[in-house]
Amino acid sequence: MRFGIFYEHQLPRPWDAGTEQRLYADALDQVEVADRMGFDYVWEVEHHFLEEYSHSSAPEVFLAAASQRTSNIRLGHGIVQIPPPVNHPARVAERVATLDLVSGGRVDFGTGEGSAAAELGGFGVPRDRKREMWHDALDAITRMFVEEPFAGWDSPHLKMPPRNVIPKTVQKPHPPLWVACSRRETILLAARNGIGALSFAFVHPEEARQWSQEYYRLLESEECVPAGFAVNPNLACVLPMMCHEDPAVARERGGLGAGFFAYALAHYYGQGEHAPGHGSIWDDFSRDRPHLGARGTDPLAGALGSPAQLVELIRRYEEAGVDQMIFVLQAGPNRHEHICESLELFGKKVLPVFAEEREARERAKAERLAPAIEAAMARRSPARTLASPYLIDETGETARIRHRGAPHPREMWSGARKRARRGGQNALARLVSGREDTDLERWFGPRQQRVMFALMARAFDESRSAGFQGAIEFALQPAETWTLMVRGARARAFRGATRSPALRLELRAADFLRIIAGTTNPAGLLMSGKIRIKGDMTLASRVTEMFGGASPY
């Protein structure tokens, strides 16, 4: 088992002139403590425009600073958003290589698509194209690491002539590759691409076991075609953490930060509204906190405890097949001195317990996976070489890059459908805005509900269902129950319950209507107890996109 710490650089309001500077200075001190105590990784996220939740928009700068204050800890991009509208692939390759040079070869390169509306809209990344942008950019970046010169790229998302992208990384062929994962589908995506899975979903050990089994089964199968020029077989899970000899003190010191982390996450990754520069997520959290309920069995509470409790918890993740535990300590209002004390206590009393067996475990794992990795690398297309030297031609190159051509008819039709759907949602939003539950439920009766569920069934997208077959039940209070039944590539809706649904969602009809209209945040409703989920939580996370809504991922 390896151990890491993770930074969003959270900064709840109110702010003053020096708060961001103190935030970064404290974080660098904490990384120095973690390095001294034997932690293996520090992971730094890349986010943009997510006030209070994450003030980490230039992770390469923070990690470069950390590299000069540490000796052994690995510096993880967790993650770089690589769709070209956010970061040009050549600039990503250059920055990662430079960080690898100044750190003496200590970089891990985590990648991602971005998923917050504030980021996708801010950079003009279409939500339904971000996955293909990620895949395309990752292929280009890994080739930039190894090709001399890079042989150029011509895709719908990136057009670049041959160039020698320098500098090159210390680690050969390149730093270990990872991808951000928030659900089962992206865990499997990581396995198919032969890269590490950074699971940012707070999952229980039992769910982690299922993810680990599926990850390694796929990675060892013929479906694995490496995205890079080396395979990184690793699964990491993230949890909030605070360690103290007295478990009650650990919960007191870390519980508020963990709660704010989850609340702010729901704020930006749900479907609620956000006005840049206005409002206070911290004030909203403080107002709603009494209604959020206890978290005694939630994984958010799992890593807040004594050293003995943390050893027991980590053992469960280790036995589940998790390779690295990544801990969030800097969250919400958590205090710098408490974070440092926690890192020191963890380093003294928890890390040594797992260090004794680590080398033997990792050696056995490497031996077991070696044949599968060799076979996977044989399926990867090799680095390219140019048949003859390429001469730079500025005029011709810029002309080719500017020429985009007319959109494909399929894209035009898809765009028209999306605009129509968006127009309908906007009209519904105007209808529900400001109306009381009883008023909405009087209007949204059985006839209107029948129409709504029929439209959802018609909008079913098999490509976003991850192969799901079965029933999803909606118990709309005060009276009606509806079922969406998925069979093959189609879905049908009918009134009433069904036997053994895979998922049952219980909520007021008014709140269901607000979710459909996009005027309320479903994650916030879940945290406040206004939505009850019975059954497959992973399925619940993708219901919206399966039936015509925008993916939150």
From TrEMBL:
Residues 1-324 form the Luciferase-like domain. InterPro entries: Bact_Lucif_Oxidored, Luciferase-like_dom, Luciferase-like_sf, SCP2_sterol-bd_dom, SCP2_sterol-bd_dom_sf. GO terms for molecular function: monooxygenase activity; oxidoreductase activity, acting on paired donors, with incorporation or reduction of molecular oxygen. Residues 462-547 form the SCP2 domain. It comes from the Bacteria. Keywords: Monooxygenase, Oxidoreductase. GO terms for cellular component: cytosol. PANTHER family: BLR5498 PROTEIN, LUCIFERASE-LIKE MONOOXYGENASE. This is Alkanesulfonate monooxygenase SsuD/methylene tetrahydromethanopterin reductase-like flavin-dependent oxidoreductase (Luciferase family)/putative sterol carrier protein. It comes from Nonomuraea soli. The lineage of its organism: Bacteria, Bacillati, Actinomycetota, Actinomycetes, Streptosporangiales.
